[in-house]
Design goal:
The protein is of the alpha+beta class. Helix content is 39%, strand content 25%. Helix 5 packs across helix 8. The structure holds one RNA strand.
Length: 516
RNA sequence: GCGGGAGUAGCUCAGUCGAUAGAGCAUUAGCCUUCCAAGCUAAGGGUCGCGGGUUUGAAUCCCGUCUCCCGCUCCA
């Protein structure tokens, strides 16, 4: 049922110009999507709401826009080169995928366990007189196991170093490692999975530098920490915000725009004094949740999900999850990243990346609290929350379904449609006049085709909050009807009042006022 | 990558036993002028995902291939 709604939402996105499959006329490109004429407006509005809530509302947060291409050593320092180059292998019977290196490491651990058991047994037997070191270096069984371990370890280390995938598979075959699910040894080839896309910079192939497309925007902030801190005369605590594209070569990238290979992030890295990071972590948890809930989609549809397993750089992590039609899913991550990133860059670059604290009279590497939200996920979240199919009945009592996007007016792609009731008697000209006056303030749309009811429904489908209709009375007294998307009710107002009415509704001020 | 499902007009789909490519909606033009979809007339729009095979003849049967959707991992 809920999945069904999601399917309809995806179809709606295409039909009304929100999201298109990338390269569709060439059969599409997997897990890549384009935003259409309405999608780009909605997306821009979401970004503006985020950006202003960070940069405009906080005097200690500034923005940057760093390049997607960065020095390759950055990804060494960040851990992405090593942490996300996994050799993968599948078991053909259980259909389960494993990291080949982990399978071999587990095999090594098994041998160690055997040795430890021998040692334990001996310890029991000899009691206090037991000399573990001597036992380990002389016992025949232990030595035998140890020899096996050393041989396997050497072979494994060499294969990893050489990037020899065939050898890795051969080790798994030779060691007779079985899949814990199926218990079989029916393995596929080992394939290298690279999280990061790479390309080459430089025009000649031999002198070219291997460049990665960034898998997160955060590093562009970290490597500019000194620039911004110095030129902006920033004092701790302060934040740097950035909106930008990131790229990940996902193995399985699906669920529409929820997981894409090219996606956009809105990240804010907040630099704090060491020791205060967990307080700030809590503060940003609250702030970010209130940002989400200000949109009015229902507090019950959000929750925090605390990470049990932490990434290599974090000492606390939580996700903001939203109840999508396909379940609670992560929209935003809040991480306490410690001083990991800045320290790594300090080490790899050889530049001192520190903050001089005038109170303490000492320098230190600041700690970082990150808030990182996926624009595309936020986009999908907003649409999921707004997409509604309503039962309405027409004048003759006929039942009918109205599809409406009840978008917050601040985010709606089109703010106002102006339509002449009929396509003659000077009504179209009058409608154009109204648009010409308001088009500098709001995204307006003109529509004169089909019956007025049909035009209202078209506007409902893209979430336009206001429809203004010009009728014959308009020509006499300069009043129009304004029709509200959510209630379908109408008021007759003076044309001169339109600007104020719409401005009030679409200004982000009312959203900002709800933020904690 | 593996398994399952699907691919015919912009959308939703029909297409019988292998014999001229169809409908509704949408689009465009015209008529009608009406405040909540579906009035009238006409027009445009198709390499039937792609390639090959069988056949006098393939959207239909066979093989291959591509793409999308659903599951299996990770994440924003």
């Amino acid at each position: 049922m809920a999945e069904d709604v999601f399917k309809k939402l995806v179809a709606h996105c295409k039909e009304y110009g929100f999201v298109f499959q990338s390269s569709e006329i060439y059969d599409g490109l997997g897990a890549v999507y384009d935003y259409g004429q309405n999608g780009v407006e909605l997306k821009n509005n979401i970004k503006k709401y985020w950006w202003d809530s960070m940069v405009m509302l906080n005097e200690n947060i500034v923005g940057i826009d760093s390049a997607i291409f960065m020095h390759p050593t950055i990804w060494k320092a960040s851990g992405h080169v090593d942490a996300f180059n996994d050799p993968l292998i599948d078991n053909k019977d259980s259909k389960k995928r494993y990291r080949a290196d982990v399978l071999i490491e587990e095999q090594l651990a098994k041998i160690e366990e055997k040795i430890n058991k021998e040692v334990e047994k001996a310890a029991k037997r000899f009691g206090d007189a037991f000399d573990e070191a001597q036992f380990r270096s002389t016992n025949a069984r232990v030595l035998e196991h140890q020899e096996k371990w050393d041989a396997l370890h050497n072979r494994f280390a060499k294969a990893l170093n050489d990037g020899n995938l065939e050898e890795l598979r051969q080790i798994i075959v030779d060691e007779e490692i079985v899949c814990p699910i199926s218990g079989t040894r029916n393995w596929t080839e080992v394939r290298q999975f690279n999280l990061m896309f790479s390309t080459e910079m430089g025009s000649t192939s031999d002198g070219a530098l291997k460049i990665y497309l960034r898998p997160e925007t955060a590093q562009g902030i970290f490597v500019n920490y000194l620039n911004v801190q110095k030129t902006g005369r920033m004092k701790l605590p302060f934040g740097i915000a950035q909106i930008g594209k990131a790229f990940r070569n996902e193995i399985v990238a699906r669920q529409f725009i929820f997981r894409m290979r090219e996606f956009e992030q809105m990240e804010m890295q907040f630099f704090v004094k060491p020791g205060t990071e967990l307080d700030w972590f809590e503060k940003w948890k609250t702030t970010r949740m209130s940002w989400h809930q200000s949109l009015g989609f229902g507090a019950e549809n959000y929750r925090f999900h605390v990470h049990e397993k932490l990434a290599h750089y974090a000492n606390a992590a939580v996700d903001v999850e939203y109840k999508f039609p396909f379940g609670f899913k992560e929209v935003e991550g809040i991480h306490s990243r410690t001083d990991f990133d800045l320290s790594q860059h300090q080490q790899y670059s050889g530049k001192k990346i520190q903050y001089f604290d005038t109170e303490k009279n000492e320098s230190y590497v600041p700690f970082v609290v990150e808030t990182s939200i996926g624009v595309d996920r936020m986009f999908l979240q907003v649409l999921s929350a707004s997409y509604k199919e309503e039962e309405v009945s027409d004048a003759s009592g006929q039942k009918d379904t109205r599809v409406v996007l009840s978008l917050p007016p601040q985010l709606a792609p089109v703010k106002m449609a102006v339509m002449p009731l009929v396509k003659k008697d000077g009504l179209p000209e009058k409608a154009r006049e109204i648009i010409d006056d308001l088009k500098f303030d709001f995204n307006c749309m003109y529509d004169e085709k089909d019956s007025i009811g049909k035009r209202y429904r078209r506007m409902d489908a893209i979430g336009t909050p206001f429809c203004v209709t010009v009728d014959h009375q308009t020509l006499e007294d300069n009043t129009v009807t304004i029709r509200y998307r959510d209630t379908m009710e109408q008021d007759r107002v003076e044309i001169s009042k339109l600007r104020a009415i719409i401005a009030e509704a679409v200004s982000m001020k009312s959203l900002f006022a709800k933020l904690k």
